[in-house]
## 1
Amino acid sequence: MKGISISPLRGALMLIVALFFLFPLFWIVLMSFETNTDILRSPPQLFFSPTLHNYAALISGKLGGGGGTMTVNYMQNLLNSVILSVCSVVVSLILAVPAAYAFARFKFRGGEDIAFTLLSFRFAPPLLVLLPLLNYFQVIGLYNTYFGLIWVYQLITLPLVLWIVRGYFEDVSEDIELAYRLDGHSWLSTFFKIAIPLARPGIAAAALLAFIYAWNNFIFALILGSSAIQPVTVGALAFITSSGIEYGQIAAALVLSVIPTLVLAIFTQRYLVEGLSLGAIKG
Amino acid sequence: MSAADLAAHPAGGSAGEGVSRKRGPGLLPYLLALPSLLVCAGILVPFVTAVFYSLERYNLAFPQARKFIWFGNYIKLLNNADFWNTVRVSMTYTVLTVGVELLLGLGIALLLWRRSWVTNLLNVLLILPLMVAPAIASLMWKLMTNSDFGVLSYLVSVIGFPNFRWATAPGSAMFTVVLVDVWVYTPFIAILLLAGLRGLPSQPFEAAELDGVPQTFVFFRILLPMLAPYILTATLFRMLDSIQQFDIIYAMTQGGPGNTLMVFQIQAYLQAFTFTNIGRSSAILMVLWAITYALSKYFMSTWTRLRERAHGLA
Amino acid sequence: MPFLTVDRLAKAYKKHEVIRDLSFAVEPLETLVVFGPSGAGKTVLLRLIAGMIHPDRGTITAGGRDITDLNPEQRHLGMAFQNFALYPHMTAYENIASPLRAKQTAAAELDARVHEVATLLRIDHVLSHLPRALSNGQKQRTALARSLVSRPPLILLDDPLRNVDAKVRYEMRLELPRVLRARETTVLYVTQDYKEAMALGDRIAVLIDGVLEQIGTPRDIYQTPANSRIARLFGDPPINLLAVQPVGGSQGAQIRVASTDLRIPPGQARRADGCVLGLRPEDIAIGFEPQPGAMEVEIDAVTPLNDREVMLLRARDGTEIFASAPQGSLETGQRGRRDAWAMLDLAQAHFFETGSGARV
């Protein structure tokens, strides 16, 4: 059975599916180019004269609200997101790729048990560990720091990278590595010149997924930081709940917050699908 | 042929020739893995601390009254109507989201099974909702369901539901957040199941077609069993996520209206940050953890079993 | 002074001993073939020598150095793998150049040596290709080139012709000795194909279940196999193994084979006591006249095999026997004939003990 065979029905269903999943994105983008008056017009308009005012306001940081101007530093939120996500992924790669290699190539005593324990912590409720962490961070001064938050992000990104990359290393034939060593190269050279290049698709997929998870994270940043280091996810909520913000600007803020991941997704979708399904299945 | 076995080996062999060799790669694997293991083990410290919190009467407003009360928090929870409300709301949320997403995801996967430029395009576009942060997605839907200018409010009023209050009314709040969850996470299931479908061997289906087996039989007795590991994986991931849902609900209503959306983590957040009752908050979270732990343990055992059976069928 | 010595090597995986107390030596510039059925431990042996795995017990000495605890890159060996193990992201040229790059050979000399060995293996026209653009035969030649380019004193070849198609395999079987001799290197060659073993080996070491059962020249192994298992492994169609009983109260000038009493040459008589008789198909002749000392058989099937004809015979008591004769010695259409006679050349018979299969 290869799917429903009737073509018009399939076509209609696919259209409905596409509409459902894409409409919100489309609409918010639309809203971000509308003036407040256009937004408040009822019924909602599909056609209007677009404006860049919302984006300009966000970028410059000066918003004209209900009365007078307000300064808001949404751009800082964006920068925070970039810093936190990129650094978390880099740290995870540095730590997890060698570890993934070790797990793929060597049998540790109780290896599978360790793996399961790691995985099970990934499923633990974040808030459970965040409350104590909040206390600890405040004591050791890591509260509201990039450093502190990046390490906490590792709880999500590190197991992810480890899991996915290990599968890819397992697929690299050990004979190839042995051949390279017999040629006279050291273990280190083999790791960098053979193992990593051959596992590159997996590393890329893992890095992408880790970036996306880090970027979309909400609760860690909500609790362990304040506005100075908070990423766009938390920033957007703060933005919305502040009074006197124009809805168009809110929409623009939302659009800005999703552009990186959406663009990444479109250009790397093959890696993503592989990473997602492999992460779930191969594990 | 796996590399050196690191299990302990008796040093010093039998008398005469045949001396036992030193084990292979030595410290290298540990050096490679240690930093990662340390970071992951780092989670144990706050975890254990949280366990202690849950066993204490610990309220930031009354620091001097902090003391160990063993299972006092838990017992109080059992008698607490709010707690049972939380349990009920969380279960409802989980069942609704996972159920709808599974059905919808399976349907979409079946729809996209046959490869063509259309299905490939849809495959790409479907990833997009998944890429949106759940909190942001919630805000998007919040805008769209705004009673004054939200496009969805308008559309819904046109088809006969004027004054549909979406997330601001107790009756429809659950529906709204489930809708957001479905929007964000159905693609995950669809992509996963699609990968599973595409990886299935074609022989059983060709054989069934040749034999003229009715499609319902093929679907229920051949297709579904072979997809079982994927379905189970998808179900588990989503169940664990749903029962711990925080972002979507927090962004939408912070748990309101009233306590209609007080799922575990939201309730715990409220206890910790509004009522400063760390002890009770931790207890609630421990209960949640116990549930997720049991679920993932159950999954691990069933998953291997199902996978073998699916391979046997192929 | 042997070049490679393996002394009391042992390796076990999870209580299962893959290699047991293995000792043998390879002379300089010799090609020693390690032959055995799958699961015999041949691949494990090569990986022990290459340094991928560590033995539980025993030592390995090569070129006067104890290499047992050395890392692979310190062992100065070349190796060609069954599945080629080429670096997929490098061209054939770079694959071959790899050992020279490890030694940081100067560019000009590196280039010359890569081309030299590529010409020897006749792949110099595909050097710029990636492995996925090469045929299996070319891949194997590239792997061989890589193992030879730095002129290592010892080369390990792990069933290199296994994954290559039959025609190429046959060609390589002729070419390999030429190539190996040109490079003047000691060779340890592993295979499951007895014809390959006999064609390529100066000596053959037969490895069964991790134990070295016999080591000798191909002729030694074929003509005086140490046990019935080895006898069966060498020969196509395989040697006939038949139970025999001595007959007659005397010293047994006669034996009963397949319910037929046959006279046995005096030299063999002593050994024929409650044993298993091994007789190769080529030592059985077919005739259509009854003769003294012949066995009445029925011809069940006739199949040409290379330049011989192989016959499946059935004795009166149902025992199946293989015989072979040069092509054309049988008229066509003899299949099904009930009145054939098989002359067993018992002077060529091997005798094995019934239980252990050891040669008597």
## 2
Amino acid sequence: MPRFGIKTQITLLCLGLLSIIPLIGLNYWDDIRKTTLTAQARIQEIEAKAIATTLLATQQNIRELLAANEDSELQKHALSAPSIKQPIRLDGLFGDWPLLTNAPPRFNLDHPVWLAVPDMPSETAFSLRLAQSSQHLYAAIDVRDNNVVLRKPSHLRLDYNDHIQLTYHDESGALRRVILPAEQEGALASYYTDMHWQYGRDINSASPNYKNTQNIASHKTDIQGYWHKTTEGYAVEFRLPISQLDTVQSQIHFAIVDIDDNPAYGPQAIVASLPKSLEDKLNPVALHARELQRVIDQLKSTYARLWIYDSRGREWAFAERDPQAEVAPTAFDSQCVKDALKGKVKPLHHMNDTDGKLNRLLVCYPIIEHGETLGVVVIDESASHVLEQEEARVRVITIKVGSAISLLLLVLLTYAFTLVRRISRLSEESSKSIDLHGRIERTTINASRNFPDEIGDLSRNITILLEKQRSYMNFLERIPQTLRHEISNPLNKLRTSLENLLDHQPYLANDNYIRKIDAGIDQISRITLHLTEAASLENAIKEEQLIKIDLITFLNDYLAVWDEHIDRTPWDKSPAFILGDSSRLEQLFDKLLDNAISFCTKTGKVLVHVERHTDRIVVIIENDGPTLPSESATGLFSPMVSTRSSGSSIHLGLGLHIAKLISDQHKALLIGKNREDSSGVIFSIEFSLIQMS
Amino acid sequence: MTYKITIVEDDIDQQQNYADALQRRGFETQCFSRVEEALIGITNDRPDLVLLDVVLGDDPDGGFTICRKLLDRGDNIPIIFLSDRSDEIDQVFGLRLGAWDYQTKPISLALLAERIKSLLRIHHARSEDNKTAPHYEGSGISLDEEKSFASWHAQTLPLTLTEFRLLSSIVKSGPEGINYSSLCESTMQRMVTNGTINSHIKNIRKKFNALDHTFQCIRNKPGFGYRWEKD
């Protein structure tokens, strides 16, 4: 099973938690969308209602603004000035004007104001387009005139040439007359003038009729425009600041004065934007009312679009958040507005796109005074914008929460890793406190010892445990010695008593029971001797110094004594030097060979062979016979552990323990294992060779 | 001549067994089981040899105490420790106090008697202060069997009786060597293993090396025993 460390587990856990958060967020996003759109619609509704109420409460002339009480005949000639987003380039070319649903109104001799020869047909006509931005009223006039008479530079008078008469109410409600003479291709000249339409007048004059003012030679209006000669006549494109117009009674009038031949004879024809019957009137034009505009301008950053329509559909105010956006969808024709104008207070309309997906939230709230619906406040919002905003908010929240969680996880991760490192150190130090054979080398664990937490408790508890264990181990280690001490005296009593008995009664020497007693005492004596040997060996070998020994020579000499019990495979006779103690090596091989011979089957063999390597030499002792139980090496070489039974011989389990102690003294690797075919056991001792220089 | 042997042993049975065995072999014995009574008894009736157990009653080092006091007052009495304490440190401590030998239980009474006789003979030889010719001499080693004296290049080797016997056996075996079994016999102990022999040889080597750090004449014959190889 692959090992999963705590660090890996914690890391995976954190990654899991981090991945769950977005999944939960995604699950909630649909709910958030619905809630957001519902809330937005509700807010729009409240806002529209608030605007309507505010208008009624604060705009004293709201009725005047919105009430549809104008002359119905004049209303027929009302001019439309749709809102535009982009400024129009004033170049006399009308290509950049927004496409109109209907053709621009055209004025010709159907509305003659003046004809020099009343019954003579005249080609004079003009078409007029108006548009309004938040700042300007734009006008585009395309005049048909076969004979364009330009103003001569020497003429002070402005009416000796083709010209356009423009009339409107200024911001103070005063009537303004502006004459736009045909001068030359290029910048449009414009002059304030008086009711005679002859000379330019100074607008700063106190008198609206400019009677006392001087004629002026250059135009002083704020009209910017362009005069352009066309194949059929000429075209004029200009703009007028809306701030200079009366937006309460927003009216404007255009008249084209066609001068042919001798100007002194007067105009050939005058074509106006109103018929002769209404020549004292101005065309109504639906300019945005400043008072209403101010109200909704304050909200234009909040909503995509806001309109205030009167009951006739005139757009009195319009504001939008993003003037750069595409053409604003109109709202007046919507069912929402129609319902509102009927006084139905069911303002919310969801407008879906062709895919059926909600794309607009349209709220229309009627402006009702004394039971009469004066107009309607329309608030339009893009669903995608609302959701984008919400997404942005959610994204910010998510980033903040995610960052906070990540930071928290990072802190927790760091802390967890610190704990893991402390646990690892504790584990490492704990492992090092016990050697390969399970002996306690030290009892004090320093890792986390001074920490006042659970790991510190664990460290201190391990120290206490090790101290107790060492005490117990000391007790166990002293057992053989103590046992020998305790046995020695009674054994000596038995031995000396038996000897005295046999001295007194020598005939008992042949007694079977006496012999058995003697043999038993000898056996116990050997046991105590072995116990002593094992107990004292560990201390004895600590002080012994190893010297350079030729292991090959040693083995050849040593094994000669064992030749009748073992088989040897020939090996290289060249010296192999190790650091060792010959008497201890003798003891080591005595134990292993004794072991091998005692466990070898009667017909089996004990085989000794040597494997030589560049830097090490391995002595292998094999014997046929019973196999080792599948125990760990620690168990195999532990004292007082006998893994196999071999009849009547003494097996205290000290032989392999002593062999292991001596192999450790020689820094040799002693391994015991079963043959692969389970026919016997193999013990190998691997010594490091001394490199002879 | 009848030699008087003092036996100091807190176990009455063992004490009696030692006494019976020695008396049967012609020794006169006096027995004590406590430190104070032993010191008084030895003072009043000076023995020729003292057998001391180390642990006497509640006193774990009672035998050592008696040994030290006897030798401190100049009594040149051969002392043999008979103890169940078989640790090397105990043996070394006892021998350094001035004991002639240290035997660990269980012991053989017959061998003990032989050892006592041998020690008394050696003690007698040494106390006569007559110079005797060494029984063996050559290549720096000199052995006086009678006094159990060994010297290396005229420097005395402070060997115990057992160590002297082992060294003597090895030196006499020469390059051919002597096997473990013969060496065991020469210790005059009943239960001796190869490990015990090896331990004694290590001690002998240490004593040689204290005089001559280049000493390497005692050579191991792996699996067989030891041999003496001249420089």
